[in-house]
Amino acid sequence: MDLPVELEEATLVDGASAFQAFTNIALWLAAPAMVVTLMIVLAFSWNKSLFALTLAPLKAKTIPVLMASAVDTRGIQFWFVAVRTLLAIIPPTVLALLAQRYIVRGLTLVL
After folding, report:
1. Can you say how many angstroms the Cα of residue 73 is from the centroid of all Cα atoms in its chain?
2. Which residues, 6+ apart, have CB-to-CB distance to 19 below 8 Å?
3. Residue 70 near residue 84, CB atoms below 8 Å
């Protein structure tokens, strides 16, 4: 929402559709922030998984450990992994949608 409108309008004048303007302009401008976010989230989830796996008692499992423990005598139960992953994704997604304008302003804040 804080990206300059002129960039999107320039692509629309050149004959691109709204989807092409989004993919060619907005995603490329947001790519570095998305990569950094991916790396930070991966590091934090990996650390939480290792600490919870080694230090936590058996009844106090975090979501990454719960997702990784879908191995049974019949092999990996992929439907359990899918359901647990979906349940793990829903709360942060709802929170991000509710706080979207604050997140964008915080990421693009120039001091």
Report:
1. 32
2. none
3. yes
Question: Are the CB atoms for 11 and 111 separated by under 8 Å?
Answer: no
Q: What residue type is 95 in one-letter code? A: L
Task: Give 9-43 pLDDT, tens digit per residue.
Answer: 888 898 889 898 888 888 887 777 787 787 778 77
pLDDT in tens, 55-76: 777 777 777 777 777 777 788 8
* Whole-number Å distance between alpha carbons of 11 and 44: 38
Structure tokens at 81: 């992994």
CB 103 within 8 A of CB 96: yes
Q: pTM above 0.70?
A: no
CA atoms within 13 A on the CB side of 66: 13
Assess contact for 23 and 5: CB atoms under 8 A. Answer: no
